[in-house]
Design brief:
Blueprint: E1 6-10, H1 13-16, E2 27-31, H2 32-35, E3 50-53, H3 67-79, E4 84-88, H4 94-102, E5 106-112, H5 120-133, E6 137-143, H6 148-159, E7 165-170, H7 175-180, E8 189-191, H8 206-216
Parallel strand pairs: 1-2, 1-8, 2-3, 3-4, 4-5, 5-6, 6-7
């Protein structure tokens, strides 16, 4: 089982200033697009590895500025010690920013499908494209429209071992894949701090995920 299993998603200044909320996580994600202005103050109390994410609107984020400004914020996070930078496979000029990221941090290249879970052949192509672009971590997130989509996503993780992959389904039908992903070889899963602080459909809380992990552990 992977040593880093739960990534707490920090979406507000208040949450960032309350470390007891994310104390049970192994690493944290700073959602620049959700925290907004002054997000950089949110890392002052961090004592854990962290991911910087500034999500495109097309992939479920709330970034309102230009692409140039979005990249500037990600590079700012890089200079401030982010351990992982999340950049979308669909981002413009991907080949320019990846080498900059990899000088100081691990590069997570991500793809989010907010409507469906594509056929397995398309999922393979996406991860292969992420690897070809230089991903240190491949992230692939889809939306479950049927319970079987969970098995499809978990199977993709196994196909790409030993590559570092984060893969699961969003939505109520995809919650099983969120829990089983790190138990199936995914390097971690994402979890909300509270039920009122989720950043994606179907996201479980840290306590819920840890509770299931405890039940499943021998």
């Amino acid at each position: 089982m992977n040593p880093q299993r739960i990534c707490a998603v920090i979406t507000t200044h208040e949450a960032a200033a309350t470390p007891e909320l994310w104390a049970g996580a192994d690493l944290v994600e700073i959602r620049i697009d959700l925290i907004g202005h002054g997000w950089d103050k949110s890392i002052r109390s961090l004592k854990k590895p962290w991911i910087a994410t500034n999500r495109l609107k097309a992939e479920g984020g709330l970034w309102e500025g230009t692409e140039e400004a979005r990249r500037t914020e990600l590079l700012k996070a890089l200079s401030m010690g982010a351990d992982i930078i999340d950049i979308e496979l669909a981002a413009p000029d991907l080949e320019e920013i990846i080498p900059q990221i990899k000088k100081k941090a691990r590069c997570m290249i991500s793809h989010h499908d907010t409507k469906r879970t594509p056929p397995r052949s398309e999922l393979r192509r996406i991860i292969n494209d992420e690897l070809a672009a230089g991903a240190d971590i491949c992230k692939l997130v889809t939306t479950a429209r049927a319970f079987d989509d969970n098995a499809v996503m978990l199977g993709i993780i196994n196909e790409f071992k030993p590559a570092d992959v984060v893969a699961f389904c969003m939505g109520p039908l995809g919650q099983l894949s969120r829990i089983l992903s790190p138990l199936s070889g995914g390097i971690f899963t994402y979890a909300a701090l509270t039920e009122h602080d989720t950043s994606a459909p179907g996201q479980l809380t840290i306590s819920q995920v840890k509770g299931v992990f405890g039940t499943l552990s021998p």
